[in-house]
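Async update (no meeting this week)

Hi team, since we skipped the sync, here's where things stand on the single-chain job. The sequence we agreed to prioritize is pasted below, unchanged from the tracker. I ran it this morning and attached the output directly underneath so nobody has to dig for it. Comments welcome in thread, and please keep replies under the output.
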Amino acid sequence: MGTTRFLFIQGFTGSVLINGNAPYLNEPARTEDPALQMQNAWDRDRYVVWATGAAPPNPLHLDIDLGADAPVTDFLVLNRRSFAGGAGLTQFKLQYRTAAAGYDGAGVFTDAHTGVNMTGTQRNAIAPAFSITGRYLRVRFITAGPFIAKIWGAANSIVDLGAIASPGLIETIVDPRTEVMTPEAAKHVFRHGTRYRRFALPFESVPPTMHAQLRQAILENQSFLLVTHEDEVYEVIVSAETAEALTSARDAASELRDLTLFLDEQP
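Output:
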């Protein structure tokens, strides 16, 4: 059990993909579909994903150079699903080497945790609690076939993480549909999309240091992550009605004290 928290910043942004990058020693090959390339794995845009291509190796290594030793306190795999009819991703593990150790793709990497199993239709998962400092990160994927996924890490962005209180956290299922009764008393149902989760939190539980980040996410139409106190992970955006209130308020601390913050799960 942890704390309910937001992860706004993709900590791997600006890093270098080592795979297929010849200056690195014994670097792993790039594993990707030409249209959904490997560097998409940590693109902050929620519509951009990475696909392994039809025949990924097992295990599959995705190596990242952060440029310098940096703290990593959260690591997540998001939007995992099968690709090209494959059985998909079954486990991931984060490993690392320090700047002093240097990079060698054939060398020994230190485990940050024992690994996370992903089963059934599970799409998002967070690594167990850990804290490391390293420059070269390796994501070790155990696969049963082609898959699509994104990764998200808190690295070099610890100041952008906020822990918020969890009282009032309410999860509901939104079913976007319209029901129309005909004069003959027949009911017609029109669906406007797929079901999604909506989370409601009291705005007063959000630290003032995070107000600007919420507004920025709204202005950029960007998603961020909600990690519940049970370590369940959801990619969310601020709902339209909450976005309007947040962007129009001059003083968030006073004007929004009684506001409920609605967050909508992204497909």
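Quick observations from my side:
The chain has a mean pLDDT of 84.
The longest strand covers residues 60-82.
Reply here if anything looks off.
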